[in-house]
Amino acid sequence: MRGTGIDHAQEVHVSQSGQERLTEDELFELLSNRRRRHILHTLINETEQVDIGTLSQEIAAEEDELAFDEVSSSDRKRVYTALQQSHLPKMDNAGVLEFDRDRGTVEATPALEDIEIYMDVVRGREIPWSDYYLGLTGIIAVVLGGATLSVGPFALLPLSAWVAFAIVALAVSALSHRYYARQNRLGIGSSPPASSTELEYEESA
């Protein structure tokens, strides 16, 4: 089972007075579907209400790799039905958006302002950052231990050089972590981020 570097018992606080908290499991359930990620991404970047028809056409265009105006009415309706019957009610119940079925609109709730959404993995390798740092700590411990005891190849350089190596390794890792976390966060970039645990989208997921 792939780790996420996040304790699933932990709860995400949302800015809704007196309302429920969104758990990590509920958050990842919402993010497990690309259509729902597209909706969240759009709402984070929009200040007004979003029309479901427009949203459906955008998603259909993305899935079929077509221009917005090239989407057929049948494909748009297919996505519209899935959003209206499944995805939007699920997200409304979770409190991350307000779905007005009568008007055919959705809008963000204050919850989106407080939720930092990103997949905490080393991109392309699916390694949790927690495991990465644990491994790096072990390597640094071996290097500094060997340098202190002047064992084998570690005796070729002074201890100060190995300490400098450890500092640089930690600094580079921290900067990389910050960069990838920012790139994977919803709302960054022109399109919804794809998850390393991407699931095939389903009509009624």
From TrEMBL:
Annotated stretches, region: Disordered: 1-20
Superkingdom, taxonomy of origin: Archaea
InterPro entries associated with the record: DUF7344
Domain called DUF7344: residue spans: 28-107
Signal peptide: none
Family matches, as Pfam families: DUF7344 (PF24035)
Chain ranges passing through the membrane: 132-149, 155-175
Protein name: DUF7344 domain-containing protein
Species: Natrialba magadii (strain ATCC 43099 / DSM 3394 / CCM 3739 / CIP 104546 / IAM 13178 / JCM 8861 / NBRC 102185 / NCIMB 2190 / MS3) (Natronobacterium magadii)
Lineage: Archaea, Methanobacteriati, Methanobacteriota, Stenosarchaea group, Halobacteria
